[in-house]
Structure formats: structure tokens, C-alpha cells
């Protein structure tokens, strides 16, 4: 039996999502039946100080050999790193990923990929030019549950899928909880519901209604949307999107469109009481049946499938649970990125460049319709720009 390939990671930023991802990298791959890949954390960097990076490495229980850097420039120059995980706010993804790619590093960049589609295209162009792997870190796509559901749609088990409804919303006292400076509402950090939470609603719409089509049949949707802005900062606090896709998955007549309804809100919740009483978060509706996925949209572990004509005895109903064996669930996207780097691939089939760009274009259109513009310094294609 061949030894597992070791993927050497550098972690760019030291916030909460970086901590979760790094801890998942250190989970024994055997707990999720993975034997071909293993992960090593080589270094981490904070933009403020090496001490902060050192504390991050200690808190995440990384090996003592891992190096703490006080700048991102030092991190990308480390020759022992294969791939860098970019975990900064959306506003900084373009500048940080450009830095990594220019230094010749493969990149797994958090979602939303960038602030706008033009930036995403620029990153793809550079990755292609430099022959480097680049992937938007949409971890939800690599969950066993997500993969299973895509296969069910592709096989026609649900019949023609006409509609997907997806919601990720939190009921917060926005003024009290986030004020004006928090990243969730700070325009300088590309804050707001759309890029932070709405990306997950869009993830379900796209992975069900776009990704399940043959690549040659995939077409961008038309968009009708509505935004309400948070009065204190101008960030979106509620956004609703109706997407019309030209083709419906598993349509033998190839004559139907499909509707995707993606919702996000900072003042009402998908999961009102925190106990799943208001499920489902996602509904995937086909001519033969429906799949209902429990909250949260970003970390799915349970769904219910109801088939047409199930009768009063609920014969056509079944519940499926995919527990996360260990860790938080971010290790599956890391495994995918690692295999792609090992195999010399530039992009992942599960979340390819073209689809990331189309989703960014969709969000651009939503923002255009809602008059939502971020500061020029984070919308720009210029590089480097100090943020």
C-alpha cells in the first residue's frame, strides 16, 4: 500500500474560520476513511505580529516545527509550503490571493471568492498563467451529504428538478450585536448578508440546478432580486433572489426552466429556536419527489426525502443522516484541494473556476439591482493595494 501524500499548508490569517480549518487539517484522516492524503501545517501568518501567529499555532495544537510569521509576505516566501489557505475577510481575498499566486503558491481561498466577478476572473487568469491550483473554499460542496444529493439529482431519482429554495438567515439585534465596525456590517470589509450568508443559499441553488447539468448545458441564470440596507452602514441586511436557469436538471424533454430561490436575512432566522423546529433550510423539488435538508445550510448532516404518492402511511418518506465522524467538516475540502495539488490539477471538478465566476456574476447583478456598492479600494483590480 502506498504511503499517503503529505500536503504542506500555510495558513494566511488567524481568525475564527482559520482556527476551525486548521484544527480540521490535524484530524486523523482515517476517521473519515481517507488513506491517500494527509495534511501538515507548516506555517501561519498574522498581518499584525508574529506573536499572534505563534499563539494561533499553539491554540490549534500545531506541531512545534510550524513557523509563525508576522507578515503575509514572509508566509508566501516559505519554500516548504505547497498550498496556502486564505482566511481573511472577503474584502481582502483578491489582494491576498494575488500575493500567493504571484509567489508561486497554490491557493484555497475562502468564500465569497472575491468582492466581484472581475476580481475572480483576474485570479483565474493568473492561476492559469502560472500553472497553479486555485479553488474557492466552498466546504459545503464536499460534504458526503452534498455529493450524495447531487448524484441523486443527476440520476433522475427526483425526476425533473423544477425548483430549489434555500435559506440561511440569523435573527440578530443587528445594532446591538454588530454595531457599525463588525465585519458582518462593515462596508470596508465587504460586510452584509449576501457575501457572508447568501453565498450558502446560492451554493445550494447552484450545486443542484447548475452543477448537476452536463458542463456543455450549463448556462448562467437570469436574476430578479431585492435588497434592504442596514441604515447605519449601507450593508445589505436582507437579500432575496429569484434565479431562472435556462435548463432544468434531469428533464428528458429539455423544455423546462428551473427556479432557484436564495434567501438571506440578518433579522429573522432559518432556525428560529435553535432546535430545528422550523426546518427545512433547503427544499429540492422534483416531479418524482422532494429532498428537505435540515439547517444549517453550510454544514448539512441530515435530510428527509419524500416521494410522490407516498400515501398516508408515509411509505415514500425516509430520513438520512450523515454524521461528521470527527472535526467540523472542513477537512473534506482540504482533502480535495490536496488531491488536486498532488495530481497536478489546476481546479477542482466540484467547484471549478467557471462556476465560481458565474456565482460572482450573479451576486454582482444582485448588488447592481439593489444599488449595493463597496468602497473602490476593495472593488478595484489594481494590485498591490494596501487595505
Q: List segments where confidence is low: pLDDT < 50 over at least 5 consecutive residues.
A: none
Number of strands: 14
Name the quaternary structure: single chain
Structural class category: alpha/beta
Strand order of the largest sheet: 8-9-10-7-11-12-13-14
Mean pLDDT over the full residue set: 96
Number of discrete helical segments: 11
Instruction: Specify the overall morphology.
Output: globular
Q: In percent, how helical is the residue content?
A: 25-40%
Radius of gyration: 21 Å
User: What is the succession of H and E elements?
Assistant: EHEHEHEHEHEHEHHEEEEEEEHHH
Biggest sheet architecture = 8 strands, mixed
> What's the end-to-end separation, in Å?
48 Å
Strand content: 15-25%
Q: Notable features of this structure?
A:
single chain, 387 residues, alpha/beta, eight-stranded mixed sheet, 11 helices, 31% helix
Give a description of the structure.
This protein has 387 residues and is α/β, with parallel strands linked by helices. It has helices at 16-25, 50-59, 72-76, 90-102, 117-130, 144-155, 174-177, 193-209, 331-342, 353-370, 376-379; strands at residues 5-12, 37-45, 67-69, 83-86, 106-110, 134-137, 161-169, 222-229, 236-245, 258-265, 282-286, 289-293, 302-307, 317-321. Strands 8-9-10-7-11-12-13-14 form an eight-stranded mixed sheet, covered by helices on one side. A six-stranded parallel sheet has the order 3-2-1-4-5-6, with helices on both faces. Strand 8 (222-229) and strand 9 (236-245) form a beta hairpin. It is globular, with a radius of gyration of 21 Å. The N and C termini lie far apart (48 Å). The relative contact order is 0.16.
